[in-house]
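Quality-control log, excerpt.
Job 1 of 2 completed; input and output follow.
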Amino acid sequence: MSQPAAFNRPYRANEIHFRFVTCIMPMPKLTPHISRRTIIQGIGALGATAFHAPFVHAAEEPAAANIQFTLDRPIDAIAAPFVLAASRGLYRAENLNVALQVATGSKDTITRVAAGTTDIAVADFNALIRYRADPDSLPIRAAFVLLNRAPYAVVARKSRGVISLGSLEGRLLGVAEGDLAIRLWPALARRNGINASAVKLEKISPAVREPMLSAGQVDAVTGFSYLSAVNLRDRGIPADDLAVFRFAEFGCPAYGLAVIVNPKFAAARPDAVRRFVRAVTEGVRLTIRQPDKAIDEVMTQMDGGARDLELARLKIAIGDNIVTDDVKRNGLGGIDPARFDASLEAIAEDFTLRKRPGAADVFDTAFLPDVGDRTISL
Protein backbone atom coordinates (compact mmCIF):
# COMPACT_ATOMS: atom_id res chain seq x y z
CA MET A 1 0.00 0.00 0.00
CA SER A 2 1.44 3.38 -0.98
CA GLN A 3 0.58 7.02 -0.50
CA PRO A 4 0.80 9.99 -2.91
CA ALA A 5 4.03 11.92 -2.66
CA ALA A 6 2.35 14.86 -0.92
CA PHE A 7 1.48 12.59 1.99
CA ASN A 8 4.97 11.06 2.40
CA ARG A 9 7.13 14.14 2.82
CA PRO A 10 7.57 15.91 6.21
CA TYR A 11 4.89 18.32 7.40
CA ARG A 12 5.37 21.98 6.65
CA ALA A 13 4.33 24.81 8.93
CA ASN A 14 0.61 25.62 8.71
CA GLU A 15 0.06 22.58 6.50
CA ILE A 16 -2.50 19.86 6.99
CA HIS A 17 -2.36 16.53 5.26
CA PHE A 18 -5.56 14.58 4.70
CA ARG A 19 -5.67 11.48 6.85
CA PHE A 20 -6.82 9.05 4.20
CA VAL A 21 -5.60 5.58 3.43
CA THR A 22 -5.62 4.90 -0.29
CA CYS A 23 -5.33 1.64 -2.11
CA ILE A 24 -3.63 1.62 -5.50
CA MET A 25 -4.63 -1.40 -7.53
CA PRO A 26 -2.75 -2.67 -10.57
CA MET A 27 -4.62 -1.97 -13.76
CA PRO A 28 -4.63 -4.39 -16.68
CA LYS A 29 -2.79 -3.26 -19.79
CA LEU A 30 -5.33 -1.95 -22.27
CA THR A 31 -5.19 -2.87 -25.93
CA PRO A 32 -6.77 -0.89 -28.75
CA HIS A 33 -9.58 -3.37 -29.35
CA ILE A 34 -11.02 -3.00 -25.81
CA SER A 35 -14.11 -0.80 -25.89
CA ARG A 36 -14.65 2.19 -23.61
CA ARG A 37 -17.65 0.42 -22.10
CA THR A 38 -15.48 -2.57 -21.23
CA ILE A 39 -12.90 -0.30 -19.61
CA ILE A 40 -15.50 1.41 -17.44
CA GLN A 41 -17.06 -1.91 -16.43
CA GLY A 42 -13.64 -3.30 -15.55
CA ILE A 43 -12.84 -0.33 -13.34
CA GLY A 44 -16.20 -0.62 -11.62
CA ALA A 45 -15.51 -4.26 -10.89
CA LEU A 46 -12.40 -3.35 -8.87
CA GLY A 47 -14.63 -2.35 -5.98
CA ALA A 48 -17.72 -0.28 -5.29
CA THR A 49 -17.67 2.66 -2.93
CA ALA A 50 -20.35 5.02 -1.64
CA PHE A 51 -18.93 7.59 -4.04
CA HIS A 52 -17.16 7.09 -7.33
CA ALA A 53 -15.06 9.18 -9.68
CA PRO A 54 -16.67 9.39 -13.12
CA PHE A 55 -13.68 10.92 -14.86
CA VAL A 56 -12.40 7.79 -16.61
CA HIS A 57 -9.80 8.62 -19.23
CA ALA A 58 -8.87 5.95 -21.73
CA ALA A 59 -6.22 8.28 -23.17
CA GLU A 60 -2.62 8.50 -21.97
CA GLU A 61 -2.31 9.36 -18.28
CA PRO A 62 -1.59 13.08 -17.73
CA ALA A 63 1.68 14.15 -16.17
CA ALA A 64 1.71 14.13 -12.38
CA ALA A 65 1.39 17.54 -10.75
CA ASN A 66 2.02 18.74 -7.19
CA ILE A 67 -0.39 21.42 -6.00
CA GLN A 68 -0.27 23.54 -2.86
CA PHE A 69 -3.91 24.27 -2.02
CA THR A 70 -5.12 26.61 0.72
CA LEU A 71 -8.53 26.86 2.38
CA ASP A 72 -9.68 30.20 3.76
CA ARG A 73 -10.61 28.65 7.13
CA PRO A 74 -10.16 25.38 9.02
CA ILE A 75 -12.02 22.40 7.58
CA ASP A 76 -15.74 22.42 8.22
CA ALA A 77 -18.86 21.45 6.28
CA ILE A 78 -18.24 23.93 3.47
CA ALA A 79 -14.94 22.20 2.67
CA ALA A 80 -16.80 18.95 1.90
CA PRO A 81 -16.16 19.03 -1.89
CA PHE A 82 -12.40 19.34 -1.34
CA VAL A 83 -12.39 16.64 1.33
CA LEU A 84 -14.23 14.27 -1.00
CA ALA A 85 -11.91 15.10 -3.88
CA ALA A 86 -9.11 13.72 -1.72
CA SER A 87 -10.83 10.88 0.13
CA ARG A 88 -12.66 9.47 -2.88
CA GLY A 89 -9.66 9.53 -5.20
CA LEU A 90 -10.79 12.36 -7.47
CA TYR A 91 -7.44 14.14 -7.23
CA ARG A 92 -5.64 10.83 -7.66
CA ALA A 93 -7.70 10.01 -10.75
CA GLU A 94 -6.43 13.28 -12.25
CA ASN A 95 -2.81 12.39 -11.25
CA LEU A 96 -2.63 15.27 -8.77
CA ASN A 97 -0.75 15.34 -5.47
CA VAL A 98 -2.57 17.98 -3.42
CA ALA A 99 -1.14 19.30 -0.14
CA LEU A 100 -3.61 21.26 1.98
CA GLN A 101 -2.90 24.40 4.00
CA VAL A 102 -5.25 26.56 6.06
CA ALA A 103 -5.29 30.38 6.05
CA THR A 104 -7.04 32.96 8.21
CA GLY A 105 -9.54 34.35 5.72
CA SER A 106 -9.87 35.53 2.15
CA LYS A 107 -7.40 38.39 2.54
CA ASP A 108 -4.81 35.86 3.69
CA THR A 109 -5.46 33.41 0.86
CA ILE A 110 -5.28 36.16 -1.77
CA THR A 111 -2.00 37.34 -0.25
CA ARG A 112 -0.58 33.81 -0.37
CA VAL A 113 -1.66 33.29 -3.98
CA ALA A 114 -0.13 36.64 -4.95
CA ALA A 115 3.13 35.73 -3.20
CA GLY A 116 3.25 32.33 -4.87
CA THR A 117 3.37 30.43 -1.57
CA THR A 118 0.24 28.55 -2.64
CA ASP A 119 -0.85 27.59 -6.13
CA ILE A 120 -4.60 27.44 -5.68
CA ALA A 121 -6.82 28.72 -2.85
CA VAL A 122 -10.35 29.47 -1.73
CA ALA A 123 -11.32 33.12 -1.37
CA ASP A 124 -14.39 35.30 -1.31
CA PHE A 125 -15.11 36.35 -4.90
CA ASN A 126 -15.92 39.92 -3.87
CA ALA A 127 -12.66 40.21 -1.95
CA LEU A 128 -10.92 39.16 -5.16
CA ILE A 129 -12.80 41.87 -7.09
CA ARG A 130 -11.62 44.50 -4.60
CA TYR A 131 -8.06 43.23 -4.94
CA ARG A 132 -8.21 43.35 -8.76
CA ALA A 133 -9.60 46.90 -8.62
CA ASP A 134 -6.09 48.02 -7.64
CA PRO A 135 -4.12 48.88 -10.80
CA ASP A 136 -0.99 47.39 -9.20
CA SER A 137 -2.58 44.02 -8.43
CA LEU A 138 -1.38 40.78 -9.94
CA PRO A 139 -3.68 39.17 -12.54
CA ILE A 140 -5.15 36.62 -10.11
CA ARG A 141 -8.37 35.12 -11.39
CA ALA A 142 -10.95 32.65 -10.14
CA ALA A 143 -11.32 29.36 -12.01
CA PHE A 144 -14.44 28.02 -10.28
CA VAL A 145 -17.19 29.56 -8.14
CA LEU A 146 -18.18 27.26 -5.27
CA LEU A 147 -20.97 29.37 -3.76
CA ASN A 148 -23.11 30.75 -6.57
CA ARG A 149 -24.85 33.02 -4.06
CA ALA A 150 -22.92 34.78 -1.32
CA PRO A 151 -23.91 33.58 2.17
CA TYR A 152 -23.97 37.13 3.58
CA ALA A 153 -26.77 37.64 6.07
CA VAL A 154 -28.05 39.61 9.01
CA VAL A 155 -29.00 37.24 11.83
CA ALA A 156 -31.26 38.75 14.47
CA ARG A 157 -33.35 37.93 17.53
CA LYS A 158 -37.07 38.49 17.05
CA SER A 159 -37.37 38.90 20.81
CA ARG A 160 -35.11 41.95 20.44
CA GLY A 161 -37.63 43.57 18.13
CA VAL A 162 -36.03 42.74 14.79
CA ILE A 163 -38.78 41.12 12.72
CA SER A 164 -37.91 42.56 9.31
CA LEU A 165 -34.90 44.03 7.57
CA GLY A 166 -36.42 47.50 7.93
CA SER A 167 -36.83 47.09 11.69
CA LEU A 168 -33.04 47.22 12.03
CA GLU A 169 -33.38 51.01 12.03
CA GLY A 170 -32.71 52.20 15.56
CA ARG A 171 -31.23 48.83 16.56
CA LEU A 172 -27.70 47.77 17.42
CA LEU A 173 -25.97 45.67 14.74
CA GLY A 174 -22.83 43.80 15.75
CA VAL A 175 -20.14 43.71 13.07
CA ALA A 176 -17.17 41.39 13.56
CA GLU A 177 -13.69 42.46 12.57
CA GLY A 178 -12.98 41.36 8.99
CA ASP A 179 -16.65 40.64 8.32
CA LEU A 180 -17.42 40.48 4.61
CA ALA A 181 -21.19 40.93 4.73
CA ILE A 182 -21.05 44.48 6.08
CA ARG A 183 -19.15 45.58 2.96
CA LEU A 184 -22.33 45.10 0.91
CA TRP A 185 -24.73 46.37 3.57
CA PRO A 186 -24.84 49.97 2.19
CA ALA A 187 -25.97 48.74 -1.24
CA LEU A 188 -28.50 46.35 0.31
CA ALA A 189 -29.93 49.06 2.57
CA ARG A 190 -30.32 51.51 -0.30
CA ARG A 191 -31.93 48.89 -2.51
CA ASN A 192 -34.51 48.10 0.18
CA GLY A 193 -35.28 51.65 1.28
CA ILE A 194 -33.52 51.37 4.64
CA ASN A 195 -31.78 54.35 6.22
CA ALA A 196 -28.38 52.75 6.86
CA SER A 197 -27.28 55.67 9.03
CA ALA A 198 -30.15 54.87 11.42
CA VAL A 199 -28.68 51.42 12.12
CA LYS A 200 -26.14 51.63 14.94
CA LEU A 201 -23.01 49.57 14.23
CA GLU A 202 -20.85 48.10 16.98
CA LYS A 203 -17.50 46.56 16.09
CA ILE A 204 -16.92 43.28 17.91
CA SER A 205 -14.50 40.38 17.86
CA PRO A 206 -15.52 37.38 15.74
CA ALA A 207 -15.15 35.21 18.83
CA VAL A 208 -17.97 37.02 20.65
CA ARG A 209 -20.36 37.57 17.73
CA GLU A 210 -22.83 34.81 18.61
CA PRO A 211 -22.33 35.06 22.40
CA MET A 212 -23.19 38.78 22.34
CA LEU A 213 -26.34 38.21 20.32
CA SER A 214 -27.26 35.29 22.53
CA ALA A 215 -26.83 37.46 25.63
CA GLY A 216 -28.85 40.33 24.14
CA GLN A 217 -25.89 42.74 24.05
CA VAL A 218 -26.64 43.42 20.38
CA ASP A 219 -29.90 43.07 18.49
CA ALA A 220 -28.46 41.49 15.34
CA VAL A 221 -25.14 40.54 13.75
CA THR A 222 -23.79 40.31 10.22
CA GLY A 223 -22.10 37.15 9.01
CA PHE A 224 -22.63 34.02 6.96
CA SER A 225 -26.06 32.42 7.19
CA TYR A 226 -24.73 28.88 7.55
CA LEU A 227 -22.33 29.92 10.33
CA SER A 228 -24.04 32.34 12.71
CA ALA A 229 -27.56 30.92 12.50
CA VAL A 230 -26.42 27.36 13.18
CA ASN A 231 -24.03 28.46 15.92
CA LEU A 232 -26.80 30.37 17.68
CA ARG A 233 -29.14 27.38 17.64
CA ASP A 234 -26.33 25.41 19.22
CA ARG A 235 -26.18 28.04 21.97
CA GLY A 236 -29.80 27.33 22.84
CA ILE A 237 -31.52 30.14 20.95
CA PRO A 238 -34.89 28.75 19.76
CA ALA A 239 -35.19 28.56 15.98
CA ASP A 240 -38.45 30.54 16.09
CA ASP A 241 -36.63 33.43 17.80
CA LEU A 242 -34.08 33.74 15.01
CA ALA A 243 -34.61 35.93 11.95
CA VAL A 244 -32.15 35.28 9.12
CA PHE A 245 -32.14 37.95 6.43
CA ARG A 246 -30.11 36.54 3.55
CA PHE A 247 -28.74 39.32 1.37
CA ALA A 248 -29.46 37.32 -1.79
CA GLU A 249 -33.17 37.25 -0.94
CA PHE A 250 -33.17 41.05 -0.81
CA GLY A 251 -31.56 41.59 -4.21
CA CYS A 252 -27.83 41.24 -3.55
CA PRO A 253 -26.27 39.82 -6.75
CA ALA A 254 -22.92 38.86 -5.21
CA TYR A 255 -21.19 35.53 -5.69
CA GLY A 256 -19.57 33.77 -2.73
CA LEU A 257 -16.50 31.60 -2.26
CA ALA A 258 -14.42 30.76 -5.32
CA VAL A 259 -11.30 28.82 -6.27
CA ILE A 260 -8.53 31.25 -7.25
CA VAL A 261 -5.23 30.48 -8.99
CA ASN A 262 -1.74 31.94 -8.94
CA PRO A 263 -1.23 33.45 -12.44
CA LYS A 264 2.27 32.00 -12.92
CA PHE A 265 1.03 28.53 -11.97
CA ALA A 266 -1.96 28.90 -14.29
CA ALA A 267 0.33 29.85 -17.19
CA ALA A 268 2.88 27.11 -16.50
CA ARG A 269 0.50 24.27 -15.61
CA PRO A 270 -2.90 25.03 -17.20
CA ASP A 271 -3.73 21.35 -17.55
CA ALA A 272 -3.09 20.78 -13.84
CA VAL A 273 -5.49 23.61 -12.99
CA ARG A 274 -8.05 22.15 -15.36
CA ARG A 275 -7.74 18.72 -13.74
CA PHE A 276 -8.01 20.23 -10.25
CA VAL A 277 -11.22 22.04 -11.21
CA ARG A 278 -12.62 18.81 -12.70
CA ALA A 279 -11.96 16.97 -9.45
CA VAL A 280 -13.51 19.73 -7.35
CA THR A 281 -16.54 19.93 -9.63
CA GLU A 282 -17.20 16.25 -9.10
CA GLY A 283 -16.59 16.71 -5.38
CA VAL A 284 -19.38 19.31 -5.35
CA ARG A 285 -21.71 17.00 -7.26
CA LEU A 286 -21.05 14.16 -4.83
CA THR A 287 -21.65 16.48 -1.88
CA ILE A 288 -24.98 17.61 -3.30
CA ARG A 289 -26.15 14.04 -3.90
CA GLN A 290 -25.22 12.61 -0.52
CA PRO A 291 -24.56 15.31 2.11
CA ASP A 292 -24.83 12.84 5.00
CA LYS A 293 -21.98 10.72 3.69
CA ALA A 294 -20.01 13.82 2.76
CA ILE A 295 -20.21 15.03 6.36
CA ASP A 296 -18.98 11.66 7.59
CA GLU A 297 -15.82 12.27 5.55
CA VAL A 298 -15.53 15.86 6.81
CA MET A 299 -15.75 14.77 10.45
CA THR A 300 -12.66 12.58 10.01
CA GLN A 301 -10.71 15.73 9.12
CA MET A 302 -12.09 18.14 11.73
CA ASP A 303 -10.58 18.77 15.13
CA GLY A 304 -13.75 18.60 17.18
CA GLY A 305 -17.12 19.73 15.89
CA ALA A 306 -20.55 18.15 16.09
CA ARG A 307 -21.83 16.09 13.19
CA ASP A 308 -25.43 17.34 13.46
CA LEU A 309 -24.31 20.97 13.35
CA GLU A 310 -22.00 20.44 10.40
CA LEU A 311 -24.69 18.54 8.53
CA ALA A 312 -27.15 21.38 9.15
CA ARG A 313 -24.51 23.84 7.95
CA LEU A 314 -23.89 21.89 4.77
CA LYS A 315 -27.56 21.48 3.92
CA ILE A 316 -28.12 25.23 4.34
CA ALA A 317 -25.20 25.99 2.04
CA ILE A 318 -26.37 23.49 -0.58
CA GLY A 319 -29.92 24.84 -0.61
CA ASP A 320 -29.15 28.55 -0.32
CA ASN A 321 -25.75 29.05 -1.92
CA ILE A 322 -24.73 26.16 -4.17
CA VAL A 323 -27.82 24.78 -5.91
CA THR A 324 -29.32 28.06 -7.12
CA ASP A 325 -31.57 28.74 -10.09
CA ASP A 326 -28.51 29.92 -12.03
CA VAL A 327 -26.71 26.65 -11.32
CA LYS A 328 -29.75 24.60 -12.29
CA ARG A 329 -29.79 26.40 -15.64
CA ASN A 330 -26.09 26.80 -16.39
CA GLY A 331 -24.21 24.26 -14.29
CA LEU A 332 -21.72 24.59 -11.47
CA GLY A 333 -18.74 26.89 -11.28
CA GLY A 334 -19.36 29.70 -13.76
CA ILE A 335 -20.51 33.32 -13.57
CA ASP A 336 -22.96 35.47 -15.52
CA PRO A 337 -21.42 38.67 -16.96
CA ALA A 338 -24.53 40.78 -16.35
CA ARG A 339 -24.76 39.62 -12.75
CA PHE A 340 -21.04 40.29 -12.35
CA ASP A 341 -21.57 43.88 -13.47
CA ALA A 342 -24.42 44.26 -10.97
CA SER A 343 -22.20 42.98 -8.17
CA LEU A 344 -19.55 45.56 -9.14
CA GLU A 345 -22.12 48.33 -8.68
CA ALA A 346 -22.99 47.01 -5.23
CA ILE A 347 -19.32 46.78 -4.21
CA ALA A 348 -18.68 50.32 -5.45
CA GLU A 349 -21.12 51.74 -2.90
CA ASP A 350 -18.66 50.88 -0.12
CA PHE A 351 -15.36 50.69 -2.00
CA THR A 352 -13.54 52.91 -4.48
CA LEU A 353 -12.72 50.94 -7.61
CA ARG A 354 -9.47 52.54 -8.74
CA LYS A 355 -9.67 50.32 -11.81
CA ARG A 356 -12.99 48.81 -12.82
CA PRO A 357 -12.28 45.13 -13.57
CA GLY A 358 -14.25 43.28 -16.21
CA ALA A 359 -15.56 39.76 -15.75
CA ALA A 360 -12.62 38.35 -17.74
CA ASP A 361 -10.19 40.15 -15.40
CA VAL A 362 -11.52 38.28 -12.38
CA PHE A 363 -12.77 34.96 -13.78
CA ASP A 364 -11.10 32.61 -16.26
CA THR A 365 -13.54 30.32 -18.06
CA ALA A 366 -10.72 28.29 -19.66
CA PHE A 367 -10.47 25.86 -16.76
CA LEU A 368 -14.15 24.94 -16.45
CA PRO A 369 -15.25 21.46 -17.54
CA ASP A 370 -17.78 21.19 -20.35
CA VAL A 371 -21.29 22.21 -19.32
CA GLY A 372 -22.44 18.60 -19.44
CA ASP A 373 -19.87 17.73 -16.76
CA ARG A 374 -21.02 20.62 -14.56
CA THR A 375 -24.76 20.03 -14.59
CA ILE A 376 -26.49 18.66 -11.53
CA SER A 377 -29.32 16.17 -11.25
CA LEU A 378 -31.47 16.35 -8.14
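Job 2 of 2 completed; input and output follow.
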Amino acid sequence: MKAEEDNPTHAIYRWTALDAIALPVIFLSRIRHCAGYGVQSPTDYAFVREVIYEHGDYSLYPELLAGSRKSAWMERKIAKLLLRISNYAQAESIATSGPITPMMHRALRLGCRKSRIIPYVASAPPSPLIIIADIRKEGREEWKALLQRPNIIAYDLHYIGFAFHDAGRYGEVHIVNFY
Protein backbone atom coordinates (compact mmCIF):
# COMPACT_ATOMS: atom_id res chain seq x y z
CA MET A 1 0.00 0.00 0.00
CA LYS A 2 2.88 2.36 0.77
CA ALA A 3 4.24 1.94 -2.75
CA GLU A 4 0.91 3.11 -4.24
CA GLU A 5 0.94 6.22 -2.05
CA ASP A 6 4.49 7.07 -3.20
CA ASN A 7 3.56 6.55 -6.84
CA PRO A 8 0.09 7.93 -7.67
CA THR A 9 0.25 6.54 -11.21
CA HIS A 10 -2.78 4.39 -11.95
CA ALA A 11 -2.15 0.82 -13.06
CA ILE A 12 -3.29 1.42 -16.65
CA TYR A 13 -0.48 3.93 -17.18
CA ARG A 14 2.34 1.70 -15.85
CA TRP A 15 4.50 -0.31 -18.23
CA THR A 16 4.37 -4.07 -17.76
CA ALA A 17 5.97 -6.96 -19.61
CA LEU A 18 2.58 -7.71 -21.21
CA ASP A 19 2.63 -4.22 -22.75
CA ALA A 20 5.66 -5.23 -24.81
CA ILE A 21 3.29 -7.57 -26.66
CA ALA A 22 0.03 -5.65 -26.35
CA LEU A 23 1.15 -2.21 -27.55
CA PRO A 24 2.40 -3.34 -30.97
CA VAL A 25 -0.80 -5.35 -31.47
CA ILE A 26 -2.96 -2.37 -30.53
CA PHE A 27 -0.87 -0.10 -32.73
CA LEU A 28 -1.21 -2.43 -35.73
CA SER A 29 -4.96 -2.83 -35.20
CA ARG A 30 -5.33 0.96 -35.32
CA ILE A 31 -2.74 1.68 -38.01
CA ARG A 32 -5.33 2.82 -40.53
CA HIS A 33 -6.20 5.66 -38.12
CA CYS A 34 -2.69 7.19 -38.05
CA ALA A 35 -2.09 10.85 -38.76
CA GLY A 36 -5.77 11.70 -39.06
CA TYR A 37 -6.64 9.27 -41.84
CA GLY A 38 -10.38 8.72 -41.98
CA VAL A 39 -11.24 12.07 -40.39
CA GLN A 40 -13.41 13.87 -42.94
CA SER A 41 -14.10 17.19 -41.21
CA PRO A 42 -11.38 19.79 -41.93
CA THR A 43 -11.58 21.20 -38.39
CA ASP A 44 -11.39 17.75 -36.80
CA TYR A 45 -8.51 16.79 -39.08
CA ALA A 46 -6.63 19.96 -38.13
CA PHE A 47 -7.27 19.18 -34.45
CA VAL A 48 -5.86 15.66 -34.84
CA ARG A 49 -2.79 16.86 -36.74
CA GLU A 50 -2.05 20.04 -34.77
CA VAL A 51 -3.06 19.09 -31.21
CA ILE A 52 -3.04 15.32 -30.79
CA TYR A 53 0.02 14.65 -32.98
CA GLU A 54 1.90 17.80 -31.94
CA HIS A 55 5.55 16.93 -31.31
CA GLY A 56 6.89 20.38 -30.51
CA ASP A 57 7.76 21.61 -27.05
CA TYR A 58 5.22 23.68 -25.16
CA SER A 59 6.62 26.23 -22.74
CA LEU A 60 4.55 24.62 -19.95
CA TYR A 61 6.03 21.11 -20.34
CA PRO A 62 8.88 21.69 -17.83
CA GLU A 63 6.39 22.97 -15.23
CA LEU A 64 4.08 20.02 -15.89
CA LEU A 65 6.83 17.39 -15.70
CA ALA A 66 8.64 18.85 -12.68
CA GLY A 67 9.00 16.11 -10.06
CA SER A 68 7.50 13.41 -12.28
CA ARG A 69 10.40 10.96 -12.35
CA LYS A 70 8.25 8.25 -10.75
CA SER A 71 5.43 8.59 -13.26
CA ALA A 72 5.09 6.14 -16.14
CA TRP A 73 5.91 7.16 -19.71
CA MET A 74 2.28 6.70 -20.83
CA GLU A 75 1.05 8.91 -17.98
CA ARG A 76 3.51 11.64 -19.01
CA LYS A 77 2.47 11.30 -22.65
CA ILE A 78 -1.24 11.55 -21.81
CA ALA A 79 -0.60 14.47 -19.42
CA LYS A 80 1.16 16.37 -22.22
CA LEU A 81 -1.79 15.62 -24.50
CA LEU A 82 -4.29 16.85 -21.90
CA LEU A 83 -2.29 20.07 -21.53
CA ARG A 84 -2.48 20.63 -25.29
CA ILE A 85 -6.20 19.80 -25.41
CA SER A 86 -7.15 22.09 -22.52
CA ASN A 87 -5.00 24.84 -24.02
CA TYR A 88 -6.76 24.38 -27.37
CA ALA A 89 -10.30 24.17 -25.95
CA GLN A 90 -10.09 27.00 -23.37
CA ALA A 91 -13.32 25.57 -21.97
CA GLU A 92 -15.07 27.12 -18.99
CA SER A 93 -15.53 23.65 -17.50
CA ILE A 94 -13.88 20.29 -18.08
CA ALA A 95 -15.71 17.17 -16.92
CA THR A 96 -13.48 14.21 -16.04
CA SER A 97 -14.10 10.60 -15.16
CA GLY A 98 -11.96 7.55 -14.54
CA PRO A 99 -8.40 7.36 -13.23
CA ILE A 100 -7.21 10.93 -13.71
CA THR A 101 -3.86 11.14 -11.90
CA PRO A 102 -2.57 14.27 -10.14
CA MET A 103 -0.20 14.96 -13.04
CA MET A 104 -3.10 14.84 -15.52
CA HIS A 105 -5.17 17.10 -13.29
CA ARG A 106 -2.23 19.55 -13.19
CA ALA A 107 -2.00 19.39 -17.00
CA LEU A 108 -5.65 20.39 -17.36
CA ARG A 109 -5.12 23.30 -14.95
CA LEU A 110 -1.96 24.50 -16.69
CA GLY A 111 -3.57 24.35 -20.14
CA CYS A 112 -6.45 26.61 -19.16
CA ARG A 113 -6.29 28.28 -15.78
CA LYS A 114 -9.85 29.62 -16.00
CA SER A 115 -11.40 26.15 -16.40
CA ARG A 116 -13.30 24.46 -13.61
CA ILE A 117 -12.55 20.75 -13.44
CA ILE A 118 -15.68 18.90 -12.40
CA PRO A 119 -16.62 15.22 -12.15
CA TYR A 120 -18.47 13.88 -15.18
CA VAL A 121 -22.09 13.01 -14.51
CA ALA A 122 -23.90 11.36 -17.43
CA SER A 123 -27.28 12.85 -16.52
CA ALA A 124 -25.97 16.44 -16.30
CA PRO A 125 -25.91 18.83 -19.26
CA PRO A 126 -22.71 18.21 -21.21
CA SER A 127 -19.61 20.26 -20.48
CA PRO A 128 -17.78 21.82 -23.43
CA LEU A 129 -14.95 19.27 -22.88
CA ILE A 130 -15.41 15.80 -21.41
CA ILE A 131 -12.48 13.47 -20.63
CA ILE A 132 -12.97 9.83 -19.71
CA ALA A 133 -9.89 7.82 -18.80
CA ASP A 134 -9.56 4.06 -19.17
CA ILE A 135 -12.36 3.73 -21.73
CA ARG A 136 -11.59 0.03 -22.18
CA LYS A 137 -12.26 -1.01 -18.56
CA GLU A 138 -13.33 1.37 -15.77
CA GLY A 139 -14.88 4.05 -17.96
CA ARG A 140 -16.32 1.76 -20.63
CA GLU A 141 -19.99 2.22 -19.75
CA GLU A 142 -19.66 5.98 -19.35
CA TRP A 143 -17.87 6.19 -22.69
CA LYS A 144 -20.58 4.19 -24.47
CA ALA A 145 -23.30 6.36 -22.90
CA LEU A 146 -21.44 9.54 -23.91
CA LEU A 147 -21.24 8.40 -27.53
CA GLN A 148 -25.04 8.06 -27.62
CA ARG A 149 -25.55 11.76 -26.82
CA PRO A 150 -26.26 14.14 -29.71
CA ASN A 151 -23.77 16.79 -30.81
CA ILE A 152 -20.73 15.02 -29.32
CA ILE A 153 -17.48 15.06 -31.30
CA ALA A 154 -15.51 12.23 -29.66
CA TYR A 155 -11.92 11.02 -29.99
CA ASP A 156 -11.05 7.45 -28.98
CA LEU A 157 -7.32 7.13 -28.18
CA HIS A 158 -7.64 3.61 -26.72
CA TYR A 159 -6.44 4.50 -23.20
CA ILE A 160 -8.40 7.72 -22.92
CA GLY A 161 -11.34 9.28 -24.68
CA PHE A 162 -12.39 12.88 -24.85
CA ALA A 163 -15.29 14.67 -26.41
CA PHE A 164 -16.34 18.17 -27.28
CA HIS A 165 -19.97 19.21 -27.10
CA ASP A 166 -20.85 21.30 -30.14
CA ALA A 167 -24.55 22.11 -30.51
CA GLY A 168 -24.06 23.17 -34.13
CA ARG A 169 -22.76 19.80 -35.37
CA TYR A 170 -23.87 16.22 -35.68
CA GLY A 171 -22.06 13.74 -33.46
CA GLU A 172 -18.99 11.90 -34.72
CA VAL A 173 -16.52 9.44 -33.23
CA HIS A 174 -12.92 9.48 -34.42
CA ILE A 175 -10.52 6.65 -33.66
CA VAL A 176 -6.98 7.97 -33.32
CA ASN A 177 -3.83 5.84 -33.16
CA PHE A 178 -2.07 7.52 -30.24
CA TYR A 179 1.18 5.67 -29.42
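Post-run check on job 2. Residues 1-7 have pLDDT under 50 and may be disordered.
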